[in-house]
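TICKET: design request
STATUS: open
ATTACHED STRUCTURE:
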């Protein structure tokens, strides 16, 4: 699982040409802990087609603020380096997959 920081976010997500899904969370967040294995499964499932990463909002506060992450977990979907969709709160794997599929279509 790719872990992003304020320093690495742009190189990995906004300047890349691969679609990306970024899970913004925090170590103290219960729903984030429940979402983590779902995100890890999706990272394996979409390996090579979609970059799936996570951001700890406390370790990367500038990036969290830049994308207006006000509650966690927040999952943001990127295509061609641009934010195209957002999900706030704990979501089922199938719901996230429905957001990923258009990124690679």
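STATUS: resolved
RESOLUTION: sequence designed for all positions
ATTACHED SEQUENCE:
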């Amino acid at each position: 699982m790719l872990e992003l920081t304020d320093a690495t976010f742009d190189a990995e997500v906004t300047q890349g040409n691969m679609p990306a899904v970024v899970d913004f969370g925090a170590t103290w967040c219960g729903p984030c802990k429940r979402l983590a294995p779902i995100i890890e499964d999706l990272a394996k499932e979409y390996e090579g087609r979609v970059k799936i990463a996570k951001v700890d909002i406390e370790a990367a506060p500038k990036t969290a603020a830049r994308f207006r992450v006000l509650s966690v977990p927040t999952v943001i979907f990127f295509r061609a380096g641009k934010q195209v969709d957002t999900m706030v709160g704990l979501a089922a794997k199938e719901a996230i997959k429905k957001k990923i599929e258009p990124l690679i279509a």
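CLOSING REMARK: Helices lie at 9-14, 30-45, 61-66, 93-104. The CA atoms of residues 46 and 52 lie 8 Å apart.
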